Each structure stands twice: as structure tokens, then as C-alpha cells.
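Q: Predict the assembly, please.
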Amino acid sequence: MRRLRRTDVPLATDAFARFLIGKIVFRRFDDGAMASGRIVEVEAYGPGDAASHAFRGRTPRNSSMFLANFHAYVYFIYGSAFCLNISSEAAGTGAAVLIRALEPLDGRAEMQVRRGSAVSILDLLRGPGRICAALTIDRRLDGADLDTDERLWLAQDGYAPPIGSSTRIGLSRAADLNHRYYACGSRYLSGRRALSPDRPFIGSSDLAN
DNA sequence: CAGAGGATCGGCT
DNA sequence: GCCGATCCTCTGG
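A: Predicted assembly structure:
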């Protein structure tokens, strides 16, 4: 297990998105408690992408997308959810990768408390808003440098699953591009089944976890 | 300053 | 599967 630094990661958005599959997100909460999860699903929002928040230029909200790569970009959407992204490309270019689903690792009890109601392990980190709720990620972490931050960082342990791709979720523009990437066979993916045909069936017995 | 729309979620049918 | 909640952000006038 080794913490990832900026010099370890690809600069280009799509390569970075694929690289992130199988890596581990670590969160240290304000009270010192820890939690972690393995990245199983991401979406790439590269330069020139009409669906990217940066497509129409820099604004106060999306300014973290224009930082050097490997900074957090956190935004609030639909009046209810935060979403965690990691910036890509060189400073001055607006681009990022959205973290859409994690497989829970350590700190499951911590995360379940932060999600509020009783929720199964399979649903704990399935979806970008759920990740941020479970890990207490909000605008305070927007702009954090993942190379040095002590609240949020990434690590690798050598796990490298096969990667599938599909169209992205919830878009109205550029909805035809296959810029969603996921760990094939993972039980922890978000989205409709048709987007991840190799995902195992999740029956009621699984939901008892 | 008003209006529209959004990289979601959870509940209900 | 569909729909509404909810509120922030950006755009246009």
C-alpha cells in the first residue's frame, strides 16, 4: 500500500480516469476517524467536452477544474448532493474525473453513521452523492491538493481489475460518449444494469449484508 | 433580478 | 421505471 503523489498519475483525463479504477480513496475525518474505499467507477470530463462543467470557461464554481492535475473539485448539485472529482490536465485547462462508486473497505461503521439511516454495504458508496455523504465531503474540500492534503488522499495496492466502459450517467449533452469506466464484475457499481452488463446480479439475499 | 436547469437520491407505483 | 424535492449557479435582460 503506497500513497499516490502527483508525479505517479497520468496527466491526460481519459488515461487518468482508467488509472483510477482499482485505486483506494482515504479520508481522515475531523475527529481523526478513518475510512477508505476502492474506486470501481468513474467518469471522464476532458477538454472540449460539451458535458463538462468547464466547457463554457472558468467560473467561481468550477475553478478547481482549472488547477493543476490531482486537486479535488467538489460541487453541490440538485439541492441535495455533493460530487467528488479529481482535476486532470495541466494548470489552466479545465478538466476532471468524477468519482462515481467505491467498494467499501475500512471504516464501514463510520461511513454508515454519516449516511444517516441504515443502509446496506452494497448501497453505502454506490453513487457520487452517496460517496460524499458517507465520507463527509463538501465544499470545504474543494481545491484540496491530493498530493499533500491530510484529510483526503489516494493510494494503490497493486490491484488492477479489467476495465469496462459505457456512456455516462445523467447527462443531456454529449450523452453518447463512452467516458464512463468501471471495474468489470464489481458488485458496487451505480447506474442501470445495461451500462455494466458484467455486474453480478444483486438479489435480496445479498442486500442482507 | 428572474428563470431555468442540473455529472442525484429516495420513495412510490 | 418515474417523479418530485431542493437549492445553487449561471445566463440573459
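Residues 43, 45, 51-53, 75, 77-81, 83, 85, 98, 100, 127-130, 168-172 of chain A lie near DNA strand B (CB under 10 Å from a C1'). Chain A has five helices and nine strands.
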